[in-house]
Amino acid sequence: MSLLKVLGFDPAKHDVKTEVVAGITTFLTMAYILAVNPDIFGALEGMGMPKDAVFAATAFSAIVGTLVMSLYAKKPYALAPGLGLNAFFVYTVCLTMGYSWQFALTAVLIEGIIFVILTVTNVREAIINAIPKAMKSAVSAGIGLFIAFIGMVNAGIIVDDGGTIIALGDITGGTALLAIVGLVITSVMMILKVPGAMLIGIIVTAIIGIPFGITHFDGVVRGVPSIAPIFCKFEFHNILSWDMVIVVFTFLFIDMFDTIGTVIGVSKKANAMNSDGTIPGVKKVLMADAVATVAGACFGTSTTTTYVESASGVAEGGRTGLTSFTTAICFAIALFFAPLFIGIPSAATAPALIIVGVMMMSSILDVDFNDFSESIPAYICMIVMPLAYSISDGIMLGMISFVVLNALTGKFKKISVMMWILAILFILRYILL
Question: Mean pLDDT, to the nearest integer, of 319-337?
Fold first, then answer.
């Protein structure tokens, strides 16, 4: 059996050149994660997570996840560590809750294993259906606000002035000005639909920062960095703690809806949905996503998930696993350019975080703001995430408020058994911990 056949490629229906170009396009639109992920994890470098090791782990998880998608699911979707999920890992679990990155990696591993089980037993869809639509939309939008906020803080656009908690930084110079320039450049390219706009924007912004002493490149090409410092560094003595339950659930929740939303959106663009709205082979897609998460945890990075940027490759005509296989090869080649990606400063990655935040905010359109029983909990979920610097607190308080408000107003039919259970558990968490 030829490789093309394994990838679901049919010479009578598909064109090799089209699929390869589509795969390269997908890589260009999501390669920014190779710079952004190590930059976010840079906050944990003092705790033993070297940026070059995180870069390698990011690339390896993208390669393995995307290869599984291409060879097993035979779909043109690419995977990599997810934005929002990495922010929760670093800023909530480690820096806010005070746990080690080994604890967080263990939570990612457990999440991946649970996802494999849920996918095999078809429970994943049942859980999704139990969560109100407004809350699903609010989580995505809230994470968009959160990661945009992180980008602005890292670039110095937003600062702690010691009085009003947060304030506008000095945007007339330094990293803040560079980030704003990068945001303008990247936004213009996004509006003009330039392929790879975010990656190009990051690189151009980083280059502009060189004469100002903000960007410092230590070469371009180098051997593949070692992932030994973070490979399979799990911490199992806390796996029965309540905080582990909360962290694992949050990873599950975010990844579940992010993946489902992405698969539905990209499948629509590829005209790969049945007339009844079902997606052929969706179980294999979800399984590839779950396996990628387990692999990513072993490599030493946050949850690996299916990327919505896969739609760019689909728009170029990608329809089979050859597209995602090509994307995986591109990530493998990128492994040798570690100095280029690691040398990129936060001021250059901030525009990408802000723009991805804008893209994630689009889900807010699905919230009915005329129905306060839905819009108030959704708003609480969204606004708490950036202001409390915690994705998990936003989710928990949003769900608690949904159950409480709908129960007090007699709208019991809107509250599923799963929502009752989760709300009670979350309330007990705040009371007892």
Answer: 94
* The pLDDT value given to residue 163: 75
> Could you tell me if residue 6 is inside a domain?
no
The Cα–Cα gap between 37 and 58 comes to 7
Instruction: Report CA dihedral (370, 308, 51, 48) to the nearest 10 degrees.
Output: 60
State how far the Cα of 84 lies from the Cα of 147, in Å rounded to an integer.
6
Total-model pTM: 0.77
Tell me whether residue 423 is in a domain: yes
What's the chain's length in residues?
433
Tokens of 257: 């809806």
C-alpha–C-alpha distance, residues 325 and 198, integer Å: 22
> Is residue 285 left, alpha or beta, with left meaning phi > 0 and alpha meaning psi from -120 to 50?
alpha
- How far is the CA of 189 from the CAs of 63, 147, 192, 196, 322, in angstroms? 27, 21, 5, 9, 28
DSSP symbol at 363: G
Number of domains in the chain: 1
Confidence label for 199 from pLDDT (cuts 50, 70 and 90) = confident
The answer to whether 216 and 348 have CB atoms below 8 angstroms apart is no
In a domain, 174, yes or no: yes
User: What token pair was written down for 72?
Assistant: 């097993």
- Find where tokens 């739609």 sit: 311
**CA nearest neighbour of 355 among 77, 203, 147:** 147
Q: In which domain, by residue range, is 198 found?
A: 11-432
Distances (CA, A) of 309 to 24, 91, 101, 111, 361: 12, 24, 28, 23, 15
Other beta carbons within 10 angstroms of residue 22's beta carbon come to 27
Give Cβ neighbours of residue 26 (< 8 Å, ≥ 6 apart). 76, 78, 307, 309, 310, 312, 313, 318, 323, 324, 327
Tokens found for residue 83: 């934005």
Name every residue whose Cβ is closer than 8 Å to that of residue 174 and which is 6 or more positions away in sequence: 156, 212, 214
| Residue 1 predicted with pLDDT over 60 | no
Nearest to 377 by CA among 353, 355, 417, 408: 408
Query: Could you say which DSSP state residue 165 is in?
Result: S
Rounded to a whole number of angstroms, the CA Rg of the chain reads 21
Q: Is 405 helix (H, G, I), strand (E, B) or coil?
A: helix
**Would you say residue 117 lies in a domain?**
yes
Q: Is the dihedral of CA 126, 127, 128, 129 positive or negative?
A: positive
Residue 93, pLDDT above cutoff 80: yes
User: What residues does 81 pair with on adjacent strands?
Assistant: 304
Distance CA 236, CA 102 (A): 9
Q: Which of 257, 275, 262 is nearest to 138 (CA)?
A: 257
What letter does residue 385 receive in the DSSP assignment? H
